[in-house]
Design a protein that fits this description.
The protein has three helices and seven strands. It is of the alpha+beta class. The protein has a single domain, classed as Alpha-D-Glucose-1,6-Bisphosphate, Chain A, domain 4 (2-Layer Sandwich). It has a seven-stranded antiparallel sheet. A hairpin with a 6-residue loop joins strand 3 and strand 4. The longest helix has 22 residues. It starts with a strand and ends with a helix. This is SRPBCC family protein.
Length: 144
């Protein structure tokens, strides 16, 4: 099955440190897609509980899946993989931030394959719709 890619690009009127802090918070991150999550394991570094090794559970009951933070490079990058319970495989989400002087540019790419034919495309479409419906409202909370 083919790997699918969903790409989100945003310009936020807020400093890079504030944007990174917002995205590093698991609750805020899930809200970008209209969801909720719970941190079920803190990161490997006690000073960064949402950092590398942190696991967040997204979704309700038997539909829940886990994501594990694999790169946490303050304030430029957060990468994560789905580590349990998803109909997707070979997943990587990568968020890159760049200071533009006037704010922060977000370049966010999600790559994954569906475990069944057509599932990757369906998941990509659902993610794009959820982002469009929710992300701008969430980012407005941190804009200057």
């Amino acid at each position: 099955m083919a790997q699918r890619e969903v790409h989100f690009h945003e310009q936020i009127n807020a400093p890079i440190d504030r944007v990174f802090e917002f995205l590093a918070d698991h609750q805020n991150f899930a809200a970008l897609f209209g969801g909720r999550c719970t941190r079920i394991k803190p990161g490997d570094d006690a000073a960064e509980p949402n950092g590398v090794g942190s696991v967040r559970r997204i979704g309700p009951g038997p539909l829940a899946f886990d994501e594990t933070i694999v790169v946490f490079d303050r304030p430029q990058r957060i990468d994560y993989t789905i580590s349990r319970g998803s109909p997707l495989k070979n997943h990587l989400g990568s968020i890159r931030l760049r200071n533009t002087g006037a704010g922060t540019e977000i370049d966010y790419v999600i790559r994954a394959e569906g475990r069944l034919p057509g599932l990757g495309a369906l998941a990509g479409h659902a993610l794009a719709l959820a982002w469009k419906a929710n992300a701008r409202k969430q980012f407005a909370k941190i804009e200057a």
